[in-house]
Design goal:
single chain; 273 residues; alpha+beta; Arc Repressor Mutant, subunit A; GMP Synthetase, Chain A, domain 3; 3 domains; 3-stranded mixed beta sheet; elongated
């Protein structure tokens, strides 16, 4: 069971400002019902740019309700310039903290607020900019991940999952999340495969296997080890429940090889040794 603060429990049991504003000045949305969490935030802003009212409708866990509730209290009566400075960390801090696995609820509140303000100011939203979708399970875009990384100092795929839910479904996007982290912290352009040395290719393959493929196989008691690279042939060794499994060939071709072709080389051929 999660360790919730008294403030979280209070806002979950007695949420403030639940409902909708029929003549709202701005409406923001975040999450989706298909992902398990969704939030709709309504703002009433007067001619002096003061948020005179805020209400929310949410579908999700207790942390989602509490984060939405405290957010409305934080912004009502505030000038829009002050409201724009609110971060997901501010929301979590006002609740006395959230379990790491529930930080995505504060992020959802912040995203709904940003979405509402974007509509209010007539700015481009992630949807209108056709932001790259990274996690299809939870509809998390590249800019959402980058914003969470920048604002919260996230450095691991697990932390990104806790804050955004990206990678928490099928797990196939974990490699892409790792690449986003690598690009952000290294701040170096990615080397094209054709320009890579043999050593760089091996490091990239290892990264894909360790962060994207191996974790999925371990869920079923199996594992995989990268042995060598021979031209386009990637030599691997299966272990655990995968070793000698009658579906080993299917796993290699439909999952391992497909993943490596997508993220390393479209001509890659995986061979078990």
């Amino acid at each position: 069971m999660w360790d919730y603060t008294e403030e979280v429990m209070e806002h979950y049991r007695n949420p403030r400002n639940v409902g909708k504003i029929d003549d709202a000045t701005a409406i923001g949305e975040a999450g989706s019902l298909s992902c398990g969490d969704a939030l709709k935030l309504y703002l009433k802003i007067d001619e002096n740019n003061i948020v005179t009212d805020a209400k929310f409708q949410t579908f999700g866990c207790g942390s989602a309700v509490a984060s939405s509730s405290i957010l409305t209290e934080m912004i009502i009566g505030k000038h829009i310039d002050e409201v724009k400075k609110v971060t997901n960390k501010d929301i979590a801090d006002r609740l006395g903290g959230l379990p790491p696995e529930k930080m995505h609820c504060s992020v959802m509140g912040h995203e709904a607020l940003e979405n509402a303000l974007s509509h209010y100011f007539g700015e481009e939203t992630a949807e209108s900019k056709k932001d790259k979708m990274v996690c299809t399970c939870f509809s998390v875009t590249e800019s959402q991940i980058l914003n969470a990384v920048k604002e919260n100092g996230l450095k691991t795929v697990e932390e990104v999952t806790n804050y955004t839910k990206a990678g928490g479904g099928c797990g196939h996007c974990k490699g892409d999340i790792q690449e986003i982290l690598d690009k952000y912290y290294n701040k170096r352009p990615q080397v094209e495969k054709s320009q890579m040395t043999h050593t760089q290719k091996i490091l990239k393959i290892n990264n894909i296997i360790e962060n994207q493929i191996s974790p999925e196989l371990r869920k079923d008691g199996g594992d995989i080890e990268f042995i060598d690279l021979d031209g386009n042939k990637i030599l691997v060794k299966l272990s655990g429940s995968c070793s000698g499994c009658k579906n080993a060939t299917l796993t290699l071709k439909s999952f391992v090889e497909t993943t490596l072709r997508e993220h390393f080389d479209e001509n890659a051929e995986v061979v078990e040794v």
